[in-house]
Write a structure and sequence with these properties.
It is built from 10 helices and 12 strands. It folds into 2 domains: 121 residues, no CATH class; 209 residues, 2-enoyl-CoA Hydratase, Chain A, domain 1, CATH 3.90.226.10. It is elongated. It is of the alpha/beta class. Strands 1, 2, 6, 7, 10 and 11 form a 6-stranded mixed β-sheet that branches. The protein has a 6-stranded mixed β-sheet with strand order 3-4-5-8-9-12, with helices on both faces. The longest helix has 20 residues. 39% of the residues lie in helices and 18% in strands. Helix 1 runs antiparallel to helix 2.
């Protein structure tokens, strides 16, 4: 079994490749799954789990659970591949509620993964990479909105952590824009994760140049532990003393949780909002057949302070409020922190007036 892996969360990019089945599907015909397809897919998924899942015993247990569902004919009436993928994903997560475990129906992505594995030409690789970059560029690499709120509080709406290979200049522009803020709010309520290079770059801005141990990565396949530290050099202005607030929801997931958990554990940020999704594992994409691939966790995060992570339980916010109120709550908290720090009496009066105004508006709701 090949060993090239493609990691969707952190630094490594790893892909596991499984030989395709022999069925040829006509592009113009919609795929309809048969009972034989169900059997072949469940068998392959069970094998992949046992051989590659972060916890081998649990991987076997999940495989047994899927086989049981198959024998009970729970999948027999499902011919739509997307519905089948959703049902299998739900069943994959039943044993230990690992939200990174999933089955995806996407023939084009499977084709790209196989092309990447089969020593493609430079032209083919450029085409695949360009499609990926263009899709992410159109979303501004996750940087949805930046602004300065009243009271000189910076705000960043960040929807994903994309590789610094492409998104570094966008990130640096955002941090430069916010660099004169007296407090910063980072909104991760709709952030589903991403890659380590961006997580490390952004988090490093909120510490000085002395390296800080953030987390460890426990890898089943390499039987190794990799440490992650803040970067000793970053372009632009560091913000080690700026008050920092992070907004969360139940959709906050994966690398967004890593960012939040590390800052919270180091008491560097105040987390405001809802308990997060609970995904602390690193995943690899693994081809199942011509039409399906899987996300399978093969490594997990461990925090050096708590000696654990947030897998399955999520991150409990410091200030728990419903997500729609998180921004206003964090903004008010930031202003109250600033008024206690400033020695400028004129500025203190302005902040007091702004706080009073916001509390009146809050009372109306």
């Amino acid at each position: 079994m090949m060993k090239k892996m493609y990691v969707s969360l952190l630094l490594c990019k790893l892909i596991f490749f499984i030989a395709p089945n022999n069925r040829i599907l006509l592009a113009q015909q919609p795929l309809k799954l048969t009972q034989q397809d169900h059997k072949e897919l469940v068998n392959k998924i069970s094998t992949l789990l046992e051989e590659n899942y972060l916890f081998p015993e649990i991987g076997r247990e999940i495989g047994v659970y899927l086989q049981k569902k198959l024998h009970e004919e729970k999948y027999h009436t499902i011919s739509n591949p997307r519905i089948f993928a959703r049902q299998i994903t739900s069943d994959l997560q039943q044993i230990n509620h690992d939200k990174h475990l999933s089955l995806v129906y996407d023939p084009q992505r499977v084709k790209d993964l196989r092309t990447e594995e089969s020593q493609p030409s430079e032209e083919e690789l450029r085409e695949i990479e360009q499609r990926r970059i263009e899709k992410r560029r159109r979303n501004n690499f996750g940087f949805r909105k930046i602004e300065i709120l009243e009271g000189n509080v910076g705000y960043l709406d960040l929807r994903s952590f994309r590789s610094t290979d492409y998104a570094a200049s966008t990130a640096l522009g955002a941090l430069s824009f916010l660099s004169n803020s007296d407090a910063i709010i980072i909104d991760l309520r709709d952030n589903y994760g991403g890659q380590a290079s961006m997580y490390l770059l952004l988090i490093s801005y909120f510490f000085d140049s002395e390296m800080v141990h953030l987390s460890d990565l426990i890898n089943r396949n390499s039987k190794s532990t990799q440490q992650f530290w803040t970067l000793p050099y970053i372009p632009g202005k560091r913000l080690p003393d700026v008050d920092l607030f992070i907004l969360t929801s139940e959709r906050t997931f994966s690398a967004a949780e890593e960012f939040t958990y590390d800052l919270q554990s180091l008491e560097r940020a105040v987390v405001v909002g809802e308990t997060t999704g609970g995904g602390a594992h690193l995943t690899t994409r693994m081809v199942v057949d011509d039409n399906f691939y899987m996300f399978i966790p093969f490594a997990g995060s461990r925090n050096p302070i708590t000696n654990t992570n947030w897998e399955g339980v999520g991150i409990q916010p410091d200030i728990e409020v419903v997500e729609v109120d998180a921004l206003k709550t964090a903004h008010l908290l930031a202003l109250k922190a600033l008024i206690n720090k400033t020695k400028d009496e004129n500025w203190k009066r302005e902040l007091a007036s702004l706080i009073a105004k916001m509390e009146i508006e809050k009372g109306k709701h």
